[in-house]
Amino acid sequence: MRYSRAFIKTKKKTKTNSDTLEKKSLELVSYDYMIRTGMIKKLASGIYEWLPLGFKILKKVENIIREEMDKAKALEVLLPAIQPKELWEKSKRWNKYGKELVRIQDRNGRDFCLGPTHEEVITDLIATESDSYKDLPVILYQIQTKFRDEIRPRFGVMRAREFLMKDAYSFDKDDEGANDTYKKMHKVYTNIFDRFGLKYTVVEADSGSIGGNFSHEFVVISNSGESEICVCKKCFYSANLEKAKIFNFSPEDEAEKELEIVETKDQKSISDISKFLSIKESKIIKSLIYIADGVPIIVLVRGDRDINEFKLINVLKCNELRLSLDEEIIKLGLEIGYIGPIGIKNIKIIADNSIKDLKNFVIGANKKDFHYINANFGRDVFLSDEQFFDLSLAKIGDKCYKCGGELTFSRGIEVGHIFKLGTKYSKALGASYLDENSNKKDIIMGCYGIGVSRVVAACIEQKLTEKKMSWPISISPYEVEIICLDVKNEELLKFSNELYENINKKYDTLFDDRKERPGVKFNDADLLGIPVVIVVGKKFLESSELEIKINQTDEVFYKNKNEIFDFISEIIKKL
Ligand code: ATP
Ligand code: MG
Questions:
Q1: Farthest CA pair distance, the chain
Q2: 106: nearest Cα among 122, 82, 125, 90
């Protein structure tokens, strides 16, 4: 492609407006970069146009995904973006999805939504088009625009309201088959992300309260990411923070002291009590009241730790969970700020493992302005083993539950998510099949998403430095860039043209044929970050030599015009 015809609209600095969301987006270098290079243009909050340069990258990402999915014998389909309400009512998500679901009505007042995901439509397709074991297993996928009215659309295409997703769905006869398909898709995903040339990790993710199912996220490592991930230094167990299982509690070796009730007037928070009593926060037990599907429950956790509500939902197997309101606590007859497990009747109590081995701890006395000190299990507080769970959020200093190794924390961008769904949607939408003996059985499902447009932004976050961009060759908008430093010089232009025609036959090449100063061309080349840049300039006139810059390594070579093709072929093989 000749630069002069490529409709590349690089800009010096992104124009900001007073819109605070716009400012937030600019905090991400990828958004600024995409605007500055003219890859995308904002049409409205969270809604973007993909211009030729950006669309080229998007297509490359899409093609890698398509090739790997096809290799795995997944079948491509294209489902409508507009979906009828009735299907979403069957899965009970019409109301549950809330405001993120973009709802529309047709001229007859019938309700539809713009698909944020396609479990309903695809399960309905299988339910109506397939009823025999002979069709199974099958994996269907599509690469299609999704709509989510995100509460905070930001960071450009990273969290957009309209974005491109690859979503795949698998249908299996039984659990074993579904687990095999899941493993196969896990491998397909690692192949895809390896080909993108990005540093990423696969983490165990939360799969909600549906028992027996599991899920993994593919996370591109980047400090600007919204996902927090934990990785064990020793065994590389990795999980997102919501899921990370922990083990860090060593039994305390202390003689039991006598239980005392002490006045703690106006000392309600853990830090207040800790200071007031001169007792470490880790010796105080927090008693939190949660409402799980409408039922109150007391959750005990060490004063210096926080409850991980994802873990709590999984343990309680509830759909809705929230902290109780003050008036609900009062109605239960409890004293806000002074709640403790002693003397509680009729409210279920569960506890985080962090308190299991505590000795001589502080708890609320269920009496205004009073706490107990030196409380102990088995003497003052009675909890059975069945009441203890891993409920708290992992934090620095925690140990890996698998090997006891040190957990490290980093940030990343979730670009893919694979999920074993089980029978949640097949049951709701009637996707069943007749087995070899004509017995009716539920189909076991899995779903597998990749944020196609998010991958592009995540790549920029990882590969852009203050000085320049460096695209991985697999998804770079072009593989080679040729810069003719002086198009007014006939000899230079003639050779550059020939070189371009020749190299472009094998490699996707951008030819900077513009009537611009060398400085402008070099600046734009640094901004575009094409892996191999060939400069046709003065040296060519003097000694038929060309300068070759390898973006990834910052290496510079000088080669004779006759060697150039073989040389860059060798280089590109290694990139
Ligand atoms: P997130 O936690 O970031 O909101 P999600 O769990 O809602 O993601 P999924 O429903 O699993 O996402 O969607 C599959 C993939 O689509 C995600 O892994 C992500 O890469 C991408 N994605 C999700 N929401 C958006 C969005 N608003 N803009 C761009 N990509 C998105
Ligand atoms: Mg989301």
A1: 97
A2: 82
Task: Please give the structure tokens belonging to residue 138.
Answer: 């099958």
Atom of ligand 1 nearest to the CA of 217: 18
Q: Which atom of ligand 1 lies at the shortest distance from residue 167's CA? A: 14
Render the burial of 200-238: b for 16+ CB within 10 Å, e for the rest.
bbbbbbbbbeeeebbbbbbbbbbebbebbbbbbeeeebb
Q: Whose CA is nearest to atom 13 of ligand 1?
A: 449
Q: Is the CB of 451 under 6 A from ligand 1?
A: yes
- Tell me, in angstroms, the distance from the centre of ligand 1 to residue 453's CA: 10
Q: pTM here?
A: 0.86
What is the C-alpha separation between 557 and 75, in angstroms, rounded?
Answer: 45
Ligand 1 close to Cβ of residue 154 (< 6 A):
no
d(CA 120, CA 148): 16
The answer to whether the CB of 418 is under 6 A from ligand 1 is: no
| Residue from 496, 494, 463 nearest 477 by CA | 463
Tokens of 127: 């339910």
Ligand 1 nearest-atom number relative to CA 416: 18
* Residue among 533, 537, 430 at smallest CA distance from 482: 533
Mean pLDDT per 10-residue section of the chain, whose length is 575 residues: 92 58 67 94 96 97 98 98 97 93 97 97 94 93 97 91 98 96 97 96 78 85 90 88 80 90 92 94 96 96 95 90 95 94 94 94 95 95 95 90 90 95 94 93 96 97 92 97 96 96 97 96 95 95 94 95 94 94
Our answer on whether the CB atom of 173 is closer than 6 Å to any ligand 1 atom is: no
Q: Is the CB of 225 under 6 A from ligand 1?
A: no
Measured CA to CA, the distance from residue 478 to residue 533 in angstroms comes to: 10
